[in-house]
Amino acid sequence: MKLGFFESLTMVGALAVAIPMVYAGTNIYLAGNTIGLFFVALGVVMVLAERFITTPFDIPSIVAKKTVGRFMRDPEETEPDAADGK
Fold first, then answer.
1. What per-residue confidence (pLDDT) applies to 85?
2. C-alpha span between 51 and 64 (Å, rounded)
3. Widest CA span of the chain, in angstroms?
4. Residue 3 has what DSSP assignment?
5. pLDDT band at 5 (very low <50, low <70, confident <90, very high)
6. Within 10 Å of residue 77's Cβ, how many Cβ atoms?
7. What is the spatial distance between Cα 24 and Cα 36, in angstroms, rounded to a whole number?
8. pTM above 0.70?
9. Sequence-ordered list of residues with C-beta below 8 angstroms from that of 30, at least 6 positions apart, any chain
10. What is the DSSP string of 47-81?
11. The pLDDT of residue 83 is above 60
12. Does residue 17 sit in helix, strand or coil?
């Protein structure tokens, strides 16, 4: 599934927080402290939650997509006209 503009922005925001967390967790774990694995797992969960969990901020975009989808069809899904001769 392709991400839209706003979904991409929120994913970038989640990654901006998760990547340093995973990096720090990896360094902490490699230094010998197992709490670093917690930070790695937390960073992964943040990205997965952003991708797969619907939040209240996602609802308006979902409603807009469904509304527009009722009135406008995807050009690739429409059948060619019989007048085209194809």
1. 54
2. 19
3. 72
4. -
5. confident
6. 6
7. 7
8. no
9. 36
10. HHHHHH---TTTHHHHHHHHHHHHH---TTTSPPP
11. no
12. helix
Name the residue with tokens 């469904």: 66
Give pLDDT, residue 50. 86
DSSP state of 36: H
Per-residue model confidence as pLDDT tens digits over 25-74: 999 999 999 999 999 999 999 999 888 887 777 787 778 777 876 777 66
Tokens, residue 20:
């340093």
Cα–Cα distance measured from residue 55 to residue 62, given in angstroms and rounded to the nearest whole number: 11
CA distances from 9 to 2, 6, 54, 55, 78 (A): 13, 5, 15, 15, 30
